[in-house]
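Re: [ENG-882] Designed sequences occasionally contain unexpected residues at chain ends

Forwarding the minimal case from QA. Structure tokens:
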């Protein structure tokens, strides 16, 4: 009888656990689905015609308040430096209509759905039997010159455990910020951002409550089964945009990357994916290209040819993007790894990789997520080895020294895997390229080059006047008339907007924005 009762309790317990897991999955899927009712809007500085005819807003601040009020939207996040904002639609029944309407707004450059993203870890059932890892990622040591500033590596992920004994000396500290004083000392829009930022919850605590980011950070820091290779003068910036479930959104990623740029990151590690093409994400990655930073990306774990079925951000084509596949301990492409002769650049170890986990522990994970930081580490060491090199030089060195099997030659651009010793040797002998590679944007922008700053039209607003050509003596009356009309329009628009919406004040910005 007791045996039967015990069996019943056991079965009931198993059913209960399965129900809880299913419920958690449904909540997680629901959370991800909610992102599909969020939109990303890119603000466009209005032209003369927009201002005079369409009553276009003069500033992005007024624009976002008006846009939210008139379209029943709730402001979520804003990146003022890039003019990008995210909103949640309160009226989900008319969501598609809203997208169409906003795309016609003269103040909107583009509008898109804020798609969900997730970590790129292979989660299929696998045996975690320990084995010796054979790879070419680490041999020897890089030059560690304390007189030089550290290379900053942005770990865009689930956060990092900063107290882990193998990582605590590698964590970036913002010296311009005074800890725990509740002030934005460095005026970058983030209060007490001493060790990175949590963009998932908008706090200054980027602690890893998932485990993925800490594992990635350990690989960059040189942790493996044999110990830790302490070479290289670099620091890790924890940029948490993925939550405890390993999920986030496109806008969260944009905010994290924007922050990393502002803090001077030279290398970005991106062990995440799953997104659709995003113009907004494309644009911020283009900003990393213009800033001369390397953008290392996981190819993804769907086992697909992403030349035929693009996966983002792996399939973006900026010259600073370095997309990484995974190979096993025998040098063969991992069964789960995406590939692509044009889209994927190199392979690195990604099967059963040993690294750090939160709580001062260690463990194994598999995926292109684990291969990506191996490339990030080597790129960082090369930049430290020869400080004259650009990230474009480093990318070329990594690809030109790769070696592998015929299988890899048919599936990835370099045809091989990391060869650290060869890459370091070549880095010492390489002269930096005189010109940065140009980039022809697929979304209608002009060709860009990192060797020269882009020429941008000054924003037009209250008190500023721009003309496409130098005025001659016959233009005096026209310019005076336009100036009078602009001033009148500015005052009328601003006063009428505030009169119609007295409950909307600039205090709203302090709730949602990091301006």
């Amino acid at each position: 009888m007791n045996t039967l009762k015990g069996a019943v309790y056991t079965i009931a317990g198993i059913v209960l656990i399965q129900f809880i897991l299913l419920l958690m999955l449904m909540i997680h899927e629901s959370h991800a689905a909610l992102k599909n009712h969020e939109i990303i809007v890119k603000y466009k500085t209005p032209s003369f015609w927009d201002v005079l005819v369409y009553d276009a807003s003069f500033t992005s601040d007024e624009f976002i308040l008006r846009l939210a009020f008139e379209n029943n939207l709730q402001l979520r996040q804003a990146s003022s430096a890039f003019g990008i904002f995210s909103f949640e639609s309160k009226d989900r029944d008319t969501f598609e209509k809203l997208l169409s309407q906003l795309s016609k707004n003269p103040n909107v450059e583009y509008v898109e759905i804020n798609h969900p993203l997730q970590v790129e870890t292979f989660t299929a059932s696998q045996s975690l039997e320990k084995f010796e890892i054979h790879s070419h990622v680490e041999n020897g040591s890089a030059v560690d010159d304390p007189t030089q500033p550290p290379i900053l590596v942005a770990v865009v992920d689930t956060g990092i455990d900063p107290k882990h004994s193998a990582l605590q000396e590698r964590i970036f500290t913002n010296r311009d910020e005074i800890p725990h004083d509740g002030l934005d000392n460095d005026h970058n829009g983030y209060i007490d951002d001493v060790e990175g930022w949590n963009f998932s919850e908008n706090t200054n605590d980027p602690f890893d409550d998932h485990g993925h980011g800490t594992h990635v950070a350990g690989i960059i820091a040189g942790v493996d089964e044999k110990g830790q290779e302490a070479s290289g003068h670099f620091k890790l910036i924890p940029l948490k945009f993925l939550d405890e479930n390993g999920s986030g959104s496109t806008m969260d990623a944009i905010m994290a990357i924007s922050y990393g740029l502002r803090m001077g990151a030279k290398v970005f590690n991106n062990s995440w994916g799953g997104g659709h093409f995003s113009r907004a994400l494309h644009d911020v990655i283009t900003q990393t290209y213009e800033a001369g930073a390397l953008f290392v990306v996981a190819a993804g774990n769907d086992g697909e040819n992403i030349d035929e079925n693009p996966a983002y951000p792996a399939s973006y084509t900026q010259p600073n993007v370095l997309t990484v596949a995974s190979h096993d301990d025998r040098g063969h492409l991992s069964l789960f790894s995406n590939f692509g002769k044009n889209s994927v650049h190199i392979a690195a170890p990604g099967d059963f990789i040993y690294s750090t986990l939160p709580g001062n522990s260690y463990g194994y994970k598999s995926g292109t997520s684990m291969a990506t930081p191996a490339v990030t580490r080597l790129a960082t060491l090369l930049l430290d080895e020869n400080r004259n090199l650009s990230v474009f030089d480093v990318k070329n060195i990594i690809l030109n020294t790769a070696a592998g099997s015929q299988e890899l030659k048919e599936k990835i651009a370099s045809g091989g895997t990391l060869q650290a010793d060869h890459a370091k040797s070549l880095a010492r002998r390489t002269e930096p390229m005189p010109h940065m590679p140009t980039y022809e944007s697929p979304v209608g922008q002009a060709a860009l080059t990192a060797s020269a700053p882009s020429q941008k039209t000054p924003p037009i607003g209250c008190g500023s006047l721009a003309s496409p050509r130098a005025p001659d003596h016959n233009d005096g009356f026209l310019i005076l008339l336009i100036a009078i009309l602009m001033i009148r329009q500015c005052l009328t628009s601003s006063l009428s907007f505030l009169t119609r919406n007295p409950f909307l004040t600039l205090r709203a910005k302090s709730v949602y924005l990091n301006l």
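QA comment: On inspection the terminal residues look reasonable. The radius of gyration is 25 Å. Proposing we downgrade this to a documentation issue.
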